[in-house]
Amino acid sequence: MLYHLFTWLSEYIHIPGGGLFQYISFRTSMAVIASLIITTVFGGKLIQFLHNKQVGETIRDLGLEGEKKKAGTPTMGGIIIIAGILIPTLLFAKLTNIYVIIMIITTLWMGAIGFLDDYIKVFRHNKEGLAGKFKVVGQVGLGAIIACTMYFHPDIVVRKGVDKPTSTKPVEVVINEGTGEKTYAENVKSSKTNIPFYKNNEFDYAKVFKMFGLQSDYLTFVVFLIVVIFIVTAVSNGANITDGIDGLATSTSAIIGVTLAILAYVSGNVIFSDYLNIMYIPNSGELVIFAGAFVGACVGFLWYNTYPAQVFMGDTGSLAIGGIIAAFAILIRKELLIPILCGVFLLENLSVILQVSYFKYTKKKYGEGRRIFLMSPLHHHFQKKGYHEAKIVTRFVIVGIILAILTIVTLKIR
Fold this sequence. Notes:
- The two termini are 41 Å apart.
- Helix content is 61%, strand content 6%.
- The mean pLDDT is 87.
- By secondary structure, the protein is mainly α.
């Protein structure tokens, strides 16, 4: 809103400093500051409200040290994170930008699913919360919305070099200063995405069926739809599983958010994208403002969520965070980097899958179930080994930083 207001004021009234709102770097900085203020200042008031309403976490007895002390700690603190993301985004981002609109929808959509789950647990006293099938339906629905919008919306395009410009599309003419040679580029719809560790770093979803001699826009869309739904479901569940000890999901998500902001900035900047030889995505630079608000909200929430936590984010926060990360990566066409960037989420997910699968297999084969880990997800395994929560979080954060750096480095490793 402020972007549009100051753009109008700068154009018609010429107020000093109004042009600052044209700069993504300035609006991102303001979004981070606003998000930190909202989460730290107003977060305390929300925690007190949750205390008064007795919105406390019900702790299952898992045999973990110190878990009983957490009983009654306010949950549904994800509301703080969502407010810290949405309010700065509404204030400082271009609200007509399709990428920003998708991220706002993603935040509200996944936040609503998580809120409903927490509401059932807390107020209906049902420890299971929202049935898993309904969560999956919600995740699939969001994935379908993102996939359809990306595939069919006319404003979601990429810049592509062409030999001869067409008469129907806006064309950019690039003149080589040394040779005077002209090259052309135009915005086109594309089913391509970036692929890491590969010199010709673009992968086309249309090639999946092309290998079998089949090719059509319909089949390409089906492949893209399946990939998007899988990513949204996997990452949101990964964030949800990671949210098991104080500050773990929040801190690792903040690191991921910073990395996504960098990737969005270079993808939305014609100079950097050309230098790094990655896809230039017009208008995607606005996502940096959203990423700034996301990082600010995560860091601000840590004020209350670090050990010992004064509030838990609940599924309201964890599902929203996972959905945001997945959607963001897909929009900037870096979804194939998710296994590296979200490596902590991946390890947590795999630990559960391996534990359950091995237990069922050994029970069927030997008559009794055996375990790979002392307990899953992985962070509980380390708790069972006697590590303090703070030490586990710190080491997971270090791993997250290493993975984030590796993700950025992939821009040059080709």
